[in-house]
Amino acid sequence: MKKMNSKIKLVVLINGSNNYKWQHVLIQKIIKLDFVELSSLIICAEPKTRLSAKKAVIESYMNFESFILAKMMNAENYWQKADLNTFDTKLSLIKCTDKKEIKAKLKDSQVDLILNLTDLDGLEEIAQASNFGMWHSKEFNNAIAQIVNNIYDNKHTLDIELTDTNTKTPIFSTNIGIKNYFFYLNLHRILTKLMNSIVFKLEALYITKDSNALTSNIIASDQDNKPDSLDDINLFKLFYKLSRNLFKDIFERAFYNEQWFLGVRTKESILNDFNKDDFNFITPLKDKIYADPFIIEENGKQIVFIEEMLFSNQKGVLSCFEIDENGQPTEPKCILDKGYHLSYPFVFKDNGKYYMIPESAQNNSIDLYEAVDFPYKWELKKNLFNNLMALDTTLLHRNNKYWLFFNKVTADCMTFDELHIYYSDSLLGEWKPHAKNPVIADSKTARPAGKFFTQDGMLIRPSQDCSVRYGYALNFNRVDLLTETEYKESFIKKVTPEFIDKNLSVHTFNNSNKYEILDGMRYIKK
Prior knowledge:
Elements (H helix, E strand, L loop, with lengths): L7 E8 L5 H11 L4 E9 L8 H20 L19 E5 L2 H8 L6 E4 L7 H4 L6 E3 L2 H14 L4 E8 L4 E9 L6 H25 L26 H21 E11 L13 E3 L5 E11 L2 E10 L5 E8 L9 E4 L6 E8 L2 E7 L5 E9 L3 E10 L3 E9 L2 E8 L9 E7 L7 E2 L6 E2 L11 E3 L2 E8 L7 E10 L4 E9 L13 E3 L3 E11 L1
Helix pairs in contact: 1-6, 5-6
């Protein structure tokens, strides 16, 4: 195993021109890391290239879009041009005219890692000058072309990868959903994801001192031929699609609500087809939604816990109702109403007592409630996490440990593509992060969608496919390995929303000994 000093000695390669705000933001993030020694910036002279008319039009539109959206998002304008001469730092700025000169500057410097932010090719030799290779992402300089091509081809997701140029090994990969009518919003998400991931991977390298530990849970790309250029783009068709998609979204938001409803059926094998004729559908009144159903069987009663939300205030409360002997629901009753949005009422039994962990991301917390009069009265038992935005927290008790699975909302970027695990020896004990967090980085399968359950000897984790839209489809995944240091799962089955008429999403699944329950979403007129 290669060794390093007390800090990671890092060198950053950057273009001599065409530098942007995001590169400066990333460098400032790295400078603040107390386990990294950023010794120098090497400014590389890149070959002159002719700016095509097509690229100039798209970049001009990007400038306009970024100017508007960065203000609306109250965020840094990553697409703003930046001058290295105004970069206030004590770093050594070294200018190099070619690869030989770069290699000479790195000779005998005992560099641990090189971070290549340039768009230069053929730097593999230079990577060998460092102990842990050179990290580079195609998306650093080609994200715009990929975003444009994906929107043009009506693709809903985009793969991102950070690679060790020396070994051709992925260090980080993820799959994110993209908005089909914004360039800059997608670019901001991609660059934010890359910056946060670089910081995270630097910390992992510092802790493990082992580059092999960085390559876990890499997803396989489903976009083998990533476009490098804009040559095949018809600008008229591109902007027609952007306008159509934008006005379609504006129209739907103006005249329709997204109403979530419930479907209940007698318990079957999840490997069977999902047929609408098997379900009894529970549709709320026009002014609200029912979503995130969890079903508990207690003393012969089938009790369903849901998120109930009025369109008028957009604040979720938690309610419950019973399914009677004839399979009919009673009227929901509110069981928990806070000053912030609540959803995903994860109800479970532990040592003879009922507990609930609702989603309270708007409160930046994960809270544990105990039933003092089940199922209608609940009191806060313990705050498990503070200053953490966690989505759809799902608990599993297995191998004498408690495991919390949730999507983590990272800085500056709302994401559905990172599954994190924390574990503890007791429900009320100290929670530790899993060694391989995020254990899954993929918008198609990361976000939880209900309780773990067993079938045919398999432990199954329901998850959401958020690639097309939020909560688009259900996945059922077999858990193959779960320890403090490893997590592996295998895909079993996907359930898309089309099995229900006019349904656009299906994103939560739970069961009891008698019933299975899920939710769906349709547009209804306001």
